Amino acid sequence: MKKVEAIIRKTKFDEVKEALHDVGIEFITFWDVRGVGKTTEKRLYRGVQYDTSTIERMMITFVCREKYLDQAIKALLESAKTGEIGDGKIFVSEISNGYRIRTGEQGDKSVYLKGEE
Amino acid sequence: MKKVEAIIRKTKFDEVKEALHDVGIEFITFWDVRGVGKTTEKRLYRGVQYDTSTIERMMITFVCREKYLDQAIKALLESAKTGEIGDGKIFVSEISNGYRIRTGEQGDKSVYLKGEE
Amino acid sequence: MKKVEAIIRKTKFDEVKEALHDVGIEFITFWDVRGVGKTTEKRLYRGVQYDTSTIERMMITFVCREKYLDQAIKALLESAKTGEIGDGKIFVSEISNGYRIRTGEQGDKSVYLKGEE
Amino acid sequence: MEEIIFSINTLWVLIASALVFFMQAGFALVEAGLTRSKNTANILMKNLMDYVIGSIVFWAIGFGIMFGTKNGFWGGLDLFTQHTYRTDMPDMAFLIFQTVFAATAATIVSGAMAERTKFKAYLVYSAVISLVIYPISGHWAWGGGWLSQMTIPFHDFAGSTVVHSVGGWCALVGAIILGPRIGKYGKDGKAKAIPGHSLSLATLGVFILWIGWFGFNPGSQLAASGTTNATAISLIFMTTNIAGAGGALSALLYMWIKYKKPPLSMTLNGALAGLVAVTAGCDAVSPGGALIIGLMAGILVVLSVEFFDKVVKIDDPVGAISVHGICGSFGTLMVGFFSTSQGALYGHGFGLLGSQVIGVLSVAAWAIAASLILFTILKYTTGLRVTQREEEEGLDIYEHGESAYN
Amino acid sequence: MEEIIFSINTLWVLIASALVFFMQAGFALVEAGLTRSKNTANILMKNLMDYVIGSIVFWAIGFGIMFGTKNGFWGGLDLFTQHTYRTDMPDMAFLIFQTVFAATAATIVSGAMAERTKFKAYLVYSAVISLVIYPISGHWAWGGGWLSQMTIPFHDFAGSTVVHSVGGWCALVGAIILGPRIGKYGKDGKAKAIPGHSLSLATLGVFILWIGWFGFNPGSQLAASGTTNATAISLIFMTTNIAGAGGALSALLYMWIKYKKPPLSMTLNGALAGLVAVTAGCDAVSPGGALIIGLMAGILVVLSVEFFDKVVKIDDPVGAISVHGICGSFGTLMVGFFSTSQGALYGHGFGLLGSQVIGVLSVAAWAIAASLILFTILKYTTGLRVTQREEEEGLDIYEHGESAYN
Amino acid sequence: MEEIIFSINTLWVLIASALVFFMQAGFALVEAGLTRSKNTANILMKNLMDYVIGSIVFWAIGFGIMFGTKNGFWGGLDLFTQHTYRTDMPDMAFLIFQTVFAATAATIVSGAMAERTKFKAYLVYSAVISLVIYPISGHWAWGGGWLSQMTIPFHDFAGSTVVHSVGGWCALVGAIILGPRIGKYGKDGKAKAIPGHSLSLATLGVFILWIGWFGFNPGSQLAASGTTNATAISLIFMTTNIAGAGGALSALLYMWIKYKKPPLSMTLNGALAGLVAVTAGCDAVSPGGALIIGLMAGILVVLSVEFFDKVVKIDDPVGAISVHGICGSFGTLMVGFFSTSQGALYGHGFGLLGSQVIGVLSVAAWAIAASLILFTILKYTTGLRVTQREEEEGLDIYEHGESAYN
Ligand SMILES: Nc1ncnc2c1ncn2[C@@H]1O[C@H](COP(=O)(O)OP(=O)(O)O)[C@@H](O)[C@H]1O
Ligand SMILES: Nc1ncnc2c1ncn2[C@@H]1O[C@H](COP(=O)(O)OP(=O)(O)O)[C@@H](O)[C@H]1O
Ligand SMILES: Nc1ncnc2c1ncn2[C@@H]1O[C@H](COP(=O)(O)OP(=O)(O)O)[C@@H](O)[C@H]1O
Questions:
Q1: Mean pLDDT, rounded, for F88-97
Q2: What is the rounded distance in angstroms from the CA atom of residue F247 to the CA atom of residue F294?
Q3: Which of B45, D215, D351, E81 has the fewest CB atoms within 10 Å, measured from its CB?
Q4: How do strand B55-64 and strand B2-8 relate by DSSP bridges?
Q5: For residue range E115-170, what is the model confidence (pLDDT) as tens digits?
Q6: Which residues contact C52 (CB under 8 A, 6 or more apart)?
């Protein structure tokens, strides 16, 4: 199994979600994150300037079977892209094992439902 | 060292926490996440229906030594389970190295305190 | 590529951010997390004591090329340290692949900009 | 001159009505703040709708039951309030003031039943309390009913018993029938803390309630013209304020001593407890008396919250039973001691105290009986409690299809 | 005696002014709550600044245009309001009351144009509406202008049309010229929901607006002394309250039936719709009439929000066009039916209705024409809309260099 | 007739008291909003408790010191305010109005000392300021003390100096003795921004303070009956409002020009600065004068915040020293220029200005000296500052055992 983590624009979330569903990713988990980088947008708080330009992004993550990976990445790259700086990143890593809490099933079976294939 | 990431029901958090402590997991880190999947609960906002059923979950994560892994998973599976759809998932992955910031200790030592074993 | 995840004190964030930038980490992503451990601080809510001492921490994460790893860890260890219990942890893991959404570039190129080296 | 007196009274009663109306916002914020964010839209909606429904049904029927003159038990019907009731101010002014009072009684209950009650059932309950439960007991004490006809009339100036304890007792019955929230009591039966999602909202709510009380209590004088009235409402301002301060202070100190740390959430309850307790006697006690009543109420509310939470294990997320039911009754009884003109401590014997006991008990009996019937019927018709899944995921999504925060 | 009457009127008008002022906070919270957190500082700032700018320019110029006596179309210039206008209260009291009214008209627009308008452009717009757009139509109806000189004068007691619909029509024009927010309409043109970030803030805002309305409507009586005035303001309190209740109730029920779930966000709009609708006739209708007007407005606002959102695809994040423009106009027309002394339903024929139609249409025409010119000029000078990047990342950072939540 | 005058005055003073009370909520929200969420329960608690404690001790002792007639320096003892002070309204009305004023002076300090002060020490401080520090200077100016007995009496109508600057100076001393928050100044000594956690709360707080000022300033007339009083309070409404608007506007424009972006947080301070500054002369200046005072205060507050923050490096998280201390003093001095009846700009020479200077300086000297002693004693007894760990993890958990948000 592969874990995909993508840092995307919040405004792109709906598109990304749909694109992923379309290629068979059933469940994604996400939360708000912020990013801070070199290019800074000046901020001002009560007369004090501070130049961390934290930008708001959304972290989405899902674990999927190897065979879904390529199409998921493709879907992600297409749906999350605007072409402007700040579109974000996708990182893929290895998951050694997974469990479905409800049933205790492990391995690949933890991420898809038997009979639904 | 292994990293365990579990997406659980918020209501189960207290039980999970205690179960993990009981099997020797000393520290866990957690935050709020949302999940969105195929089964959708219709929502309505000012007359517009939108069908992302984001459900609120809690992500908990901890890094532990190999030998604790099995019992931690067992504890998690038991304490986080309700048997109803939506109980969540557990994913295990490999950590190549860890550091305790306070002391700079690395490797296994970063996740347990000398002398406490 | 390596993924670094560090759980640090919120108050140390600015220092950490600057230290990382100085050693060439261009972009970091972060969010608020809470930790709960064995040492508990009693809390009280409307007369009921509850002894989860969740402490607020910040999770910061970045993916960097192998060659940056050591100096990044060093910078982190120095900048995030107070020497008091609760300084947090750093975990390093392997990333199998990365993509820059804007351009579709993958692998190492996803985390640095051509020509900026 | 008559006209001027009329004007001044009207002005005061209307302004007081606006302030009391604002208490709805206070209740909404306190209750939302002390519960979890997954149920916030639900609790806000309940607080809005009980006012909305109360406004309509109290005008349509409740007011007549309360202020009609049929007999000592109820006032009879005056559909859509057509009769004439007052000569010193327009009937509409009196009606609007009474409407916002009725809504207060109704709104108390939502807090105790928070995070697990079906919205539909709540709406029905809310209509019934403004329609009949509150008006009946209101009639007894304020509408010329039997409590006001006793030799020593029952003294509940602004409604510690008539308004607050009625809400509190209904809340008690509701919370019992509903049962505790999932996760409130561990397998060992020990109470667990379920912290509210925003003490900022709760604190703002208490400040709003406090300013609302400056309409609630002095407004109940129902007049402001003439030296007597002006002096009375000034005293009431003072006693109200001092009792609120006393309640907050003693709750804080008591918690501090007992648990080493003074928590905000309980201090807020202490302030409300003091305000509720002085409501019955705010016109009759001295500022010193008010302070003592407030101080006692602040401690009482802590003990009471712990008692319900830990001993009898009734889950009341915001402490409504303790604040309104217990401290409301307590404050009413204290008038029997602290009334400067009739109280035992001022050497006037225990006559008034007797009346107070009768009043407190009879109103409690009525509120408990009526709400018991009501909630039992609701339980077996619309159903009272949401499903486990709805409760766990939050009422906002399942009952209202939206979430309060995005 | 004269002095006392003078005092009582002053007191009432000033208190009402304070309440109406508070509506600014209500608008700020409703609009902030119903939009996303990345634009919160921006929307709050707009709500603050339109009051600030309105206070200054209305005093400097607007008031004279509105209440001067030059001719039926505009009142002329009275720089910094030096003339004398009233004998029954100080001019300053009248001025401050009118100022908070003017600011209300101005502030309505920010909601409809939220999340994408340049701050600079908003400030200019906001000055112009308080300076001239609102005063002109205000003059027609309230300043002795032509609408008040018709045989059957146009009846808009507290400003359903003069205040609310003016704001609503400007909002309509602004929202059209701006275009929808990024992401509001999918590629297939279907409307998407962009949920607001905090229903707690929005609900508190509605409660604050509601209490503000107790200054807005009864305050428009501009007097409280004497039985007639006291009775009038009491009635207005009642009709205002009942219409708000009616609006909330019918919006809730309608949504419940249609979508199976009653959402808070729309119920809040329903309450406001009822309050706006009754504003024109609050002095002239019976409580029963007010209830019916409110009930109708509650449903109308839902239909209208859906119409603008889904059919004509005008993106109005908080529903300002529907609440203030549509329901304001609707409520004004209803006076023609429900006025107890002049309305068609009470057998007085359609004369008043005719005047109401003329008033509603002429004010709408003026507001739309004036704001069309204004926004077009702004579009080609300062620019009206922020860049795509600013809109996506949030106006707070790019326009104000700070974020509302940290 | 006497009775009616009495009634009208009472009504006005009580309503004003309620509005001023509400300022406590405003302060609580502004301070909570401009600090971090880990200290929210603590700051809310402080704002609640200074009112609670102030209500009790001011009644018990402070009032007598302030309004007694012992001598020009202090008024003497009148335990629990038993004497008679007024004939034109009930003493209780006067007392409650003065109580809410005293609490305002007290509450200002919590903001400047936020996020690092021990709760216990704060409670003691808060008692002492309402008990003696504020009453003494209040006596000088308002209680018949020496400032009011000068040939040209010191003019501080509603307390720019007596209330606000006293709070501001105590805040200054407190902030100095405490030292800056951890992380406020970098190793290079450069000031860092520590953004507050919610500008929504802060903005609502400012709106609430603004409406509270409509009680604070016009209420200080302490009467509303008769043409003179009615005209006076109307003017005060107007000047108060215009100065607040002026302050917000100039702060916004100044920041915009200087930093290219107009931030909300500073504009809020600007509004408060204008309101504070006009408080001294709100009865004596023209609306035009009020506008100018407000405009100047809005710029002054920005300069002052930057001066304290960057130059002298005193860490004042909410800008209380600048808003209340600096702008309060500034506004008081401006009366010497802008008073239409006595001011230099109206050709009445510099006599009043001299008195204003004396008043401002003597009150500042007293407040600084008294609070210096107080805070030094606290430092060496209860301790003033929390430990490093407590400050880093947040005062909520360590001082109160709970967190504001869950
Ligand atoms: N493949 C996945 N990758 C990441 N998160 C997932 C994945 N599958 C489920 N989740 C998370 O787990 C939560 C519960 O999972 P769900 O599939 O509903 O439980 P069940 O296994 O009982 O059907 C979801 O809300 C989602 O956040
Ligand atoms: N094994 C672990 N897995 C995940 N998070 C951890 C782990 N150990 C510690 N943490 C996180 O790091 C934070 C600080 O760690 P702590 O153990 O208190 O520091 P120290 O190493 O100085 O004792 C904790 O709050 C928790 O969030
Ligand atoms: N190396 C990295 N590790 C972790 N997060 C990153 C990294 N690089 C970028 N991000 C996240 O992705 C977001 C957008 O990336 P950015 O570099 O601005 O886009 P682009 O690739 O178009 O230049 C950032 O806000 C940050 O949160």
A1: 96
A2: 4
A3: D351
A4: antiparallel
A5: 999 999 999 999 999 999 999 999 999 999 999 999 999 999 999 999 999 999 99
A6: B14, B17, C36, C40, C43
- The domain spans of chain F are 2-400
Rounded CA-CA distance D223/D86 in Å is 12
Which ligand is closest in space to the CA of residue A113?
1
H-run or E-run covering B67: helix B66-79
Chain E residue at shortest CA distance from F3: E4
Locate the chain D residue with the closest alpha carbon to E225: D7
Q: Is D18 on the interface with E (CB under 8 A)?
A: yes
pLDDT digits (tens, 9 = 90+) for E287-334: 999 999 999 999 999 999 999 999 999 999 999 999 999 999 999 999
Position E356, amino acid: Q
pLDDT tens track for F353-391? 999 999 999 999 999 999 999 999 999 999 999 998 889
pLDDT digits (tens, 9 = 90+) for D302-355: 999 999 999 999 999 999 999 999 999 999 999 999 999 999 999 999 999 999
> Which pTM value belongs to this model?
0.94
Given a contact cutoff of 8 angstroms between Cβ atoms, the answer to whether E287 and E280 are in contact is no
% chain A with pLDDT above 70: 81
Contact A44 E192 (CB under 8 A): no
Interface contact B82-A100, CB threshold 8 A = no
Judge whether C46 is closer than 8 Å to chain D, CB to CB.
Answer: yes
Distance B62 CA to ligand 1 centre (A): 18
Flag whether residue E142 sits within 8 Å of chain D, measured between CB atoms.
Answer: no
CA of B111 to the centre of ligand 2 (A): 8
Place of tokens 């009956």: F225
Lowest mean pLDDT among B52-56, D19-23, D190-194, F106-110: B52-56
Identity of the residue numbered E199: L
Note the pLDDT tens digit of each residue in E96-112.
999 999 999 999 999 99
Distance from CA of C48 to the nearest CA of A (A): 31
Kindly state the percentage of chain F with pLDDT values over 70: 100
What residue type is A96 in one-letter code?
A: S
**CATH number for the domain running over F2-400:** 1.10.3430.10
Buried b (16+ CB within 10 A) or exposed e, F172-193: bbbbbbbebbebbbeeeeebbb
Residues of chain D with pLDDT under 70: none
For residues E213-251, one letter each, b for 16 or more C-beta atoms within 10 angstroms of the residue's C-beta and e for the rest, the string is bbbbbbbbbbbbbbeebbbbbbbbbbbbbbbbbbbbbbb
E404, closest residue in chain A (CA to CA): A45
Pick the CATH number of C2-110 from 3.40.50.1820, 3.30.70.100, 3.30.70.120, 3.40.710.10: 3.30.70.120
* D387 vs B: CB within 8 A: no
pLDDT for the residue numbered A114: 58
**Contacts with B, C 14-73, CB within 8 Å:** 31-38, 52, 57, 59, 73
How far is it, in rounded angstroms, from Cα A47 to Cα D123? 50
Q: How many helices (H) and strands (E) does chain B have?
A: 2, 7
C82 to chain A nearest CA, in Å?
A: 22
In angstroms, what is the span from residue A69 Cα to ligand 3's centroid? 21
Which residue is associated with the tokens 């404690």? F53
pLDDT number for residue F322: 98
| Distance in Å, CA C111 to ligand 3 centroid | 8
Q: Indicate the pLDDT class of residue B51, thresholds 50, 70 and 90.
A: low
Assigned token pair, F55: 């209500």
Interface contacts C/F by beta carbons within 8 Å? 22
Residue F243 CB partners (closer than 8 Å, separation 6+): F274, F275, F277, F278, F282, F290, F291, F293, F294, F297
Rounded Cα distance, E216 and E282, in Å: 11
